[in-house]
Amino acid sequence: MLNAGLDSAIAIAERRNKKLGASVYAGRSSSVIERAFLALKSSTWFIVLSGFVEPVFYLLAFGYGIGNLIGVVTSPDGTEVPYAAFIAPALLATSAMNGAIYDSTWNVFFKMHHARLYQGMLSTSLGPVDVALGEIGWALLRGLTYALGFFAIAAPLGLILSPWGILAIPAAVLIAFGFASVGMGITSYLKSFQQLNWVNFVLLPMFMFSGTFYPLSVYPESVQFVVQLLPLWHAVELIRGLTLGALSIQMLTHVAYFVVMVALGLIFTTVRLRSLFMK
Length: 279
Hints:
- The chain is mainly α and 279 residues long.
- Helices cover 72% and strands 2% of the residues.
- The longest helix is centred in the middle third of the chain and has 31 residues, at 83-113.
- It has one domain.
- Strand 1 (72-74) and strand 2 (80-82) form a beta hairpin.
- The two termini are 18 Å apart.
- Helix 4 packs across helix 10 and helix 10 (231-244) packs across helix 11 (251-277).
């Protein structure tokens, strides 16, 4: 039945393109975001908030629990900072990642394989690029919302030690954009909800070992090299440098990493959706 619906959507899209000469992009990705917002209003808010509160619990448990035992740690520029202020930017980056990944994996999978929402969308004037940009944009907004919420908690607690910390918000947008664009493309290859556990299998160790709770220097050099390839490590270092005021030229490398991640993710997702729905 799923394949029949998919073939039907493909046939409709092909007839539409032949008749109207339409491209794969109609410039209406905002319609996809609007639909997602309307759907959110009728959803269970507890599920939405769950991805936000997890980093907050980590901050309270580690930052103020274990943090009282550790005291201070060395920041990227060599100065000593409270442990809670050291992990707060890492958890802010994690909040942006969580929001983007949740929407671009679990929600996208449901829409693609169960609600068959994209087949309906592509029966209209929307093209696969509209769908990709709309879904990724919505995931980005969710990641931004999580990051803003965490920032609103960390700032009054005195964990944003530099005026440059305000730039952590646009940095969180870039981070969420990167994770969302790649997440949706990967999800398009998954065939069952059980396979989504692979996403968690990747995210959990990346969260634990990307310099979130301790400096990269604690690892052997061989392990450091592997960690520096992970997107969350770049996210953590970028936001940590801003919130602690430890600015360096290396931060441009972190920005460039996510710019490339966004570009490749958009291309990957668009090509994948086109192959599924516009054969």
